[in-house]
Design goal:
- This protein has 289 residues and is α/β, with parallel strands linked by helices.
- The chain folds into two domains: 89 residues, Rossmann fold (3-Layer(aba) Sandwich), CATH 3.40.50.1980; 146 residues, 3-Layer(aba) Sandwich (Rossmann fold), CATH 3.40.50.1980.
- The protein is built from eleven helices and eleven strands.
- The strands form two sheets. Strands 6, 7, 8, 9, 10 and 11 form a six-stranded mixed beta sheet that branches. A five-stranded parallel beta sheet has the order 3-2-1-4-5, with helices on both faces.
- Strand 4, helix 3 and strand 5 form a beta-alpha-beta unit.
- Helix 4 runs antiparallel to helix 5.
- The longest helix is centred in the middle third of the chain and has 22 residues.
- The protein is globular and about 75 Å long.
- It starts with 18 loop residues before the first strand and ends in an 18-residue tail after the last helix.
C-alpha cells in the first residue's frame, strides 16, 4: 500500500525542463524570462528572438510533427487556441502534459506571461516583466494624448475576404491613439465572424488602413484599387501602412512592444505629431514610416 509518509518535498518533481512551444509568443516570453534553455522545440513561425530559430522546429500552426516532438522527450507542451486542439489531443493521448492558452485581449496576454512564470518557477521575474510591459503601454497611451484627433483605423487582418482586427489588436489601436472602424467585431474570436465587405469599409471612410496579412507581404496597390476605395480618406492621403504579422498578430510580448509602437508611429505621422525616441519602433517597419 502506498504510504504518503514516504514523500518529502525534495522527492517532488521540479518545474518543466523540456518544453515545446507550438506558437511563437510563448517562446518569446520564456526567452524574456531568461529560461530559454528549457525550450526543446518551437514553432516554424518563430522569429523572436532570432536565436530561437536555432531550436528544433516541430510545428506549423494547425499541424505538428508529433513523432519529432516525442523524440525531444518534452515534459510540457504549450499550445494556443482551439485551432491547436487536435494537436493537443494527440500529445495528451501520447502521454505529453499540455497546457493550452487562449489569450484574446491585452489583459489576457499579461495573464499568459504571469502563468508561464508560475509554471517555470520564476513568478517574480514574470511579475517584473508584466510591470514593464504595462508601463510601456501606459507610456504609449500618454503619448497619444498629444494627438490633435484620434484617427479612425481599419485594421485589415486578411485581404480576401476582408477580416477586421481581433480583440488585442483593436485594443492596441486604441492605446496607440486610434479609433477602430469596427469596434463591435473585436470580441468575435473566429476570423469568419469578423469578415466585412469592401463596401462596409468604404462606408466607414477610415483615416488610416493598417494591413497585416499573415505570411504574406501586403500589396498596397491592390488595396487602393478596390472598388470605390480611391474615394477613401486613407487611400487618398496615402495613409496605408503594413504592420508585419510577427509584430501584431501573435498575442504576446511582440504585440505589446514593437507592434503597438509601430501603430503609434503610423498614427503620429497621420496626426503630424513627433513621438519620443524611446517610444519609436526598434525593428523593421513599413518604409513609408
Amino acid at each position: 500500500m502506498l504510504s504518503f509518509d514516504s514523500f518529502r518535498p525534495e522527492s517532488v518533481a521540479g518545474y518543466p525542463r523540456r518544453i515545446v512551444c507550438l506558437t511563437p509568443e510563448t517562446t518569446e516570453t520564456i526567452y524574456l524570462l531568461g529560461e530559454q534553455d528549457r525550450i526543446a522545440g518551437v514553432s516554424g513561425y518563430t522569429t523572436r528572438p532570432p536565436e530561437a530559430r536555432l531550436k528544433p522546429k516541430v510545428s506549423a500552426f494547425t499541424t505538428a510533427k508529433i513523432e519529432k516532438i516525442l523524440d525531444l522527450k518534452p515534459d510540457l507542451a504549450l499550445t494556443f487556441s482551439d485551432l491547436q486542439a487536435d494537436i493537443a489531443r494527440e500529445l495528451i493521448r501520447r502521454g505529453v502534459p499540455v497546457i493550452g492558452f487562449n489569450q484574446r485581449s491585452v489583459p489576457e496576454i499579461l495573464e499568459m506571461v504571469q502563468t508561464i512564470g508560475r509554471l517555470l518557477g520564476c513568478a517574480e521575474r514574470a511579475e517584473v516583466l508584466v510591470r514593464r510591459l504595462s508601463e510601456e503601454l501606459r507610456a504609449v497611451a500618454a503619448s497619444a494624448q498629444q494627438f490633435p484627433f484620434r484617427p479612425k483605423v481599419f485594421f485589415e487582418e486578411w485581404n480576401d475576404p476582408l477580416i477586421s482586427g481581433i480583440q488585442w489588436v483593436e485594443e492596441l489601436v486604441e492605446i496607440a491613439g486610434g479609433e477602430p472602424a469596427f469596434p463591435d467585431l473585436r470580441t468575435c474570436s473566429l476570423a469568419k465572424e469578423r469578415i466585412v465587405s469592401p463596401a462596409q469599409v468604404l462606408a466607414k471612410n477610415p483615416d488610416v488602413i493598417l494591413a497585416s496579412w499573415c505570411g504574406m507581404k501586403v500589396n498596397k496597390d491592390s488595396i487602393g484599387s478596390r472598388d470605390g476605395w480611391h474615394e477613401m480618406t486613407a487611400v487618398q492621403r496615402g495613409h496605408v501602412f503594413e504592420i508585419k504579422s510577427t509584430y501584431i498578430l501573435q498575442p504576446g510580448p511582440a504585440a505589446l512592444t514593437e507592434g503597438v509602437r509601430q501603430i503609434h508611429l503610423a498614427l503620429a505621422r497621420v496626426c503630424g505629431v513627433e513621438i519620443a525616441e524611446a517610444l519609436r519602433p526598434a525593428e523593421k517597419v513599413d518604409p513609408e514610416l
